[in-house]
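3.2 Worked example (two chains)
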Amino acid sequence: MKRELAAAAALVLVCCAAAWHTLFVIRTADELCGMVAEAERAYSDGDADGAAERLHEALELWLDDGYLAAALRHSELDSVTQGFFDQLELIAEHSPSCHVGFERLKELISGAAKSELPSPGSIF
């Protein structure tokens, strides 16, 4: 009976850890997308320097989060990081496609978070 209780406790612990992981990744992605949206609003208002500064803050949050670096796939980390640098370059160039770049960056961040959601393929 002790083994069954220990197994049940371990299963509950694993489920709680998975739920915490998912919520953390989604919350962080939402925070990053919000920062990117703020940068987009600043750029739309003609404040390219403010937009770049806000995007740098979001990039720092992205790069300094050791948990995400350990939890997410390297390809996702690389694509989001490259998306930040591409967007900063578009802002510096005052590119006409800058608004599209903001949307692309938000999609990259959201996509990385969505890949961490539980699905039948990730469970079985």
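3.2.1 Second chain
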Amino acid sequence: MNRKKLGIGIGVLIAIILIFTFSSIKNHIRAEQTASVRISTFNSKQVQNIDYRQVDQLVEDKVAAMVVFINPNNKVGENFINFFQTSNEIKSLKQKVYLYQIFYTDKNLQEKYQLSDDQVSIIFFENGEISQHKNYQQIPTDLTAFVNQLNTLSINK
């Protein structure tokens, strides 16, 4: 009887270890895949990539933060990525912009920040809360005015 309980206990322990191991491996693979395809060179030092594990921590840690949620696999996302990579106007950014490139659908993230697959969302956080949320279905044609809008996003409420 004791051997049977011991065998069941060992089996359950092995199952738990395997579940955590596979979960950890999946997260590591996802992070590696994302890092390998993520655009990482930008035309401004004010633009910085963050990944899915960093968004909540960034919002909690920073007094104010601007996060751009962008799907680089659609036309709108491609245009915004190109803007951040090549535009001379982006050099006049006065505040740090954190770029979250969405490669995997995350329903929790979409619901929490009200994100849409066919739009780029720019969210300004203050003291851990959403202060402003702007969605774009296309890149604005006046890029200088757009950068000025980003520079004043925290001021205009």
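3.3 Remarks
The chain has two domains: 1-37, 41-152.
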